[in-house]
Amino acid sequence: MTLARLLPLLALSSTVGAQSPVPTAAQQIAAAVLPLPAEMRDGATVMGYREPGKLVVLREGRNGMHCLALYVTRPDFHVACYHKGLEPFMARGRELRAQGVAGTAVDSVRFAEIKSGKLKMPVQGALHTITAKKEGFDPRTNKVTGGSLLSVLYIPFATTESIGITAQPREDGPWLMFPGTPKAHVMIAGKM
Fold first, then answer.
1. C-alpha to C-alpha distance for 29 and 67, rounded to whole angstroms
2. Spatial distance between the Cα atoms of 73 and 52, rounded to a whole number of angstroms
């Protein structure tokens, strides 16, 4: 084998089994779309990090879903996909966190902006996430073990009475979180 043919193999073998500090765009895309059904993955817009702190579009999509490879900047594995109608709400949350706003204060600001008309919230929107321990994700196989699935249906200002779903957290069925607020949403959790 010539040196010219050996060098690419050596480069490949050095990346197998060890994930770079910032995964490649292809790795981030493959991981970010995992919460979606297989038939929707190729059409999703994917955002990720090419360097810490700088979220960029890694791939433009065509099916109206946006996926984020947030595991690059978090201590756990976390990816999320949501309908494009939620992007202004989600982007504002990222912007506020980058400015140092934390916890429930992020929602307080967004709720006030929705009420004032500065921030638009869609009538409905869906979000799907996978969260696991960092070691629960294998970048070589793009598989997650021991993770939690979460599907969220945003229904702004929904109440338990208006949709007939309890506000008590449940492991075996849907429940309503933040009832009566712009961020009211039905939670459906699962395990992997």
1. 8
2. 7
* Residues whose CB falls within 8 Å of the CB of residue 105, separated by 6 or more in sequence, listed in order: 96
Cα separation values, 176 from 46, 83, 153, Å: 28, 19, 9
Average pLDDT over residues 71-99: 92
| Structural Rg of the chain based on CA atoms | 19
Q: Measured in whole angstroms, how far is the alpha carbon of residue 97 from the centre of its chain? A: 15
> What are 44-80's pLDDT values in tens digits?
999 998 776 788 999 999 999 999 998 988 899 999 9
125-133/76-83 β-pairing: antiparallel
Q: Which amino acid, one-letter code, is at 2?
A: T
Q: What is the mean pLDDT of residues 133-151?
A: 93
Rounded-to-integer distance, Cα 42 and Cα 78, Å: 19
| Distance separating alpha carbons of residues 97 and 120, to the nearest angstrom | 19
Which conformational region is residue 53 in: left (phi greater than 0), alpha (psi within -120 to 50 degrees), or beta? left
Q: pTM score, two decimals? A: 0.78
State yes or no: pLDDT of 35 exceeds 70: yes
Contact assessment for residue 77 and residue 129, using Cβ atoms and an 8 Å cutoff: no
Cβ(154)–Cβ(185) below 8 Å: yes
Question: Which residues lie across from 46 on neighbouring strands?
Answer: 59, 67
Is-contact 127 80, C-beta < 8 A? yes
How far apart are alpha carbons 97 and 190 in whole angstroms?
27
